[in-house]
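Full entry
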Amino acid sequence: MRTEFVTAIATIAVIVALAIIIYVFSRSKREETKVRYADYDGANKALERLGDWAKWMSGIQTAVLGAVGFIIDKVPVAGKDNLMSLTTTVVILLIGAGLFCSAWVLSALPSITIRVPQKLNVKQGIKVPTHYDVYEYSLYGIFKGIRLVFMVTLQHWLWALGLLAFGFLLLQFSQLPPSPSSSPCTIQIQD
């Protein structure tokens, strides 16, 4: 149990370090990566596609958590100090953190959508800023420091690392000997 705790703490530390690296990098490259020729329609299309992408990733992450639950149910050594138990802890933490980021992205999209400036209304003399790079927007109006590009990048890295860890868990699962209590499945074919 102690080894799982240390593994959990180390995984959380990696997640936090990854978040800090992404945050610092995205802040330092801000001017170099600005979109210069986007418009209102392009910004809305980007937000729609981003929502679809976040839902797709969430679906895969949920399926992975279901598969991990199946593995935990089938493996008699769950809870012992072994590599499979540690890998399971890492997968759950990475995928769980990725799902958390997905939830934030999906819940922030309506806030960002209503903050995208409309097209200029020249007749009424209203001047609206033409900043349509939605990735540079903060998640919500109150969280000025947390930009969409940070959360999306973090979500993607957690998703990828979680899937790699899950693949490693599947390799370990496939190498386990079959349990003696399980009987082979037979299929009866009737003519």
About this structure: Residues 40 and 118 are 6 Å apart (CA to CA). The longest helix spans residues 40-74. The two ends are 54 Å apart (CA to CA). DSSP finds four helices and no strands in the chain.
